[in-house]
Structure formats: structure tokens, C-alpha cells
Design goal:
Elements lengths: L4 E4 L9 E2 L6 E9 L10 E7 L9 E3 L8 H28 L6 H13 L4 H8 L3 H8 L2
Antiparallel strand pairs: 1-3, 2-3, 3-4, 4-5
């Protein structure tokens, strides 16, 4: 975002928010007004995904000033982008839940580790989430 951009918080926004399983991750579309020379400030609106953790999506999506609240297409694409952001975080959160109740949830824990790795979690993050050392986590689930 540049100095000529500003976040818009004064529009009438419906209660669109998405919640991750992991605490501290609430997502929603965020409206950016780009001050483009030759265009009315509110005639060319851009949206992006955002999360309460401070993450903001890289892609910007167009919406018109006639839209009231969040345009439906913007909600769909920003939610998909936000879900990609929180997927590894939620997977690590699940690891923590299952590891706190082992050994009765060993199969779920194994599945959650595989999913976290598929979603891009590091061995360091897996070790922290499962309360194991890095070496123990690699030994149990590693290659």
C-alpha cells in the first residue's frame, strides 16, 4: 500500500468475518481506496483479504461504488485467499490439541502432522505444536 492509498473503515459493512480454529485469526475483506488521478476517489474500489493477526493478502479485487457492504464475488475470493493463509496455522493448532491428549489420539495426531507438513509447516513448528524436540518430531514422523 502506498501513501496515496487509505483503508476505508467508514462503509456500512455487513457482519462478514471468518474464524479460524486457531485463536487470533479472524478474516474479512478489507477495502482500499486508491487515489488514482482522473478518477473519483470512490468510483474505483479495491478489496483484499485481511486477518486480525496483521496478515494482508497480496491480490486486490475490484468492486464498484454501487455495491453495498461487501460484493459477493469479493467475499468469495478474499475468503479463499484468507483460508490459504490460515490452513497451516489451523493444522498446527490441531496438532497441539491432539498432542495434549495422546496416546488415545495417536492416529489423529499422525494425520494432523501429515496435513501440517502438506500445508507448508516446518519441522520446528511441528515440534513446538506437539511439545516434542525437533529431533524427536523428525524421528517420529520424518523421512
Amino acid at each position: 500500500m502506498t501513501d496515496s492509498d487509505q483503508l476505508r473503515t467508514d462503509i456500512d459493512e455487513p457482519a462478514h468475518a471468518w474464524f479460524a480454529q486457531a485463536p487470533g485469526h479472524e478474516g474479512r475483506p478489507e477495502l482500499i481506496v486508491r487515489n488514482t488521478p482522473g478518477l473519483q476517489p470512490q468510483s474505483h474500489l479495491r478489496w483484499r483479504a485481511s486477518c486480525s493477526c496483521g496478515w494482508a493478502g497480496q491480490a486486490e479485487y475490484l468492486g464498484s461504488r454501487e455495491d453495498k457492504g461487501y460484493p459477493a464475488t469479493v467475499v468469495a475470493v478474499t475468503r479463499a485467499e484468507w483460508e490459504r493463509h490460515v490452513a497451516p496455522i489451523d493444522a498446527l493448532f490441531q496438532l497441539g490439541r491432539f498432542s495434549a491428549r495422546r496416546p488415545e489420539h495417536a492416529a489423529e495426531l499422525d494425520h494432523a502432522v501429515a496435513q501440517a507438513l502438506r500445508l507448508g509447516a516446518s519441522w520446528h513448528e511441528i515440534a513446538i505444536a506437539t511439545r516434542l524436540t525437533y529431533a524427536d518430531a523428525r524421528r517420529r514422523w520424518g523421512l
